[in-house]
Amino acid sequence: MCRMERAHKSGVVIAIDGPAGAGKSTLGRRLAEALGLPYVNTGLMYRAVAHRALQDGIHPDEGRALGRLADTLRFSVGGEPIPSLLIDGLDPDRSLGFPEVEAVVSRVARHPEVRAVLRDVQRRLGAAGCVIEGRDIGTVVFPDADLKIFLSATPSVRAGRRQRERGSGETVAAAVARRDAFDARTNPLVPAPDATVLDTTVLSKDEVFERALVLVRPVVERERP
Fold first, then answer.
1. Which pTM was predicted?
2. Which backbone phi and psi does 15 adopt, to 5 degrees?
3. 13-223: CATH number
4. How is the chain split into domains, by residue range?
5. Over the stretch 84-124, which tens digit does the pLDDT of each residue have?
């Protein structure tokens, strides 16, 4: 698969990429609500595969088995007020954020067999228009997205955000560093050439949202009939 292969889409697609803890999910949901677009969190899709693999006893290094497993999960978009990701018809369970899932999700996500399945599903879910966030949306999933935003932040700030989101456990700074290193081997995390980079290190959630909204609104107004 060519890295910059164009996806077939019919609606406005806003792509948000960045490392763990940069603020993708917070921004993605707020933009979707403001714009009236569906919201797709692709990280939850990889977590769902990892979680099911743990339940089924599939080793995180068994790429072919994990690819087959990914193909059995039913991902869709629905719900109110903003349609968002459903897994087997249900809202994502909080167990997808548990430490045992966090510990293996990068290993699961690195397999081409898994990424190929989920990439095709992500394109299907977002083709009619969406705000979609992940690590390779602007470079692989929707290289022809109408707007690409790349969020960054220092590792210490990202670790602090993860700590607040998920509580105690393993030293969060170490976990973030390990996740960064592992993810980088799977898919080097760099902005698409035409992405706008927002460093969220010293910005509040509201400031990030307002800056992104300035970028997004003209695109949406231009593309919508």
1. 0.87
2. -100, 130
3. 3.40.50.300
4. 13-223
5. 999 999 999 999 989 899 889 999 999 999 999 999 999 99
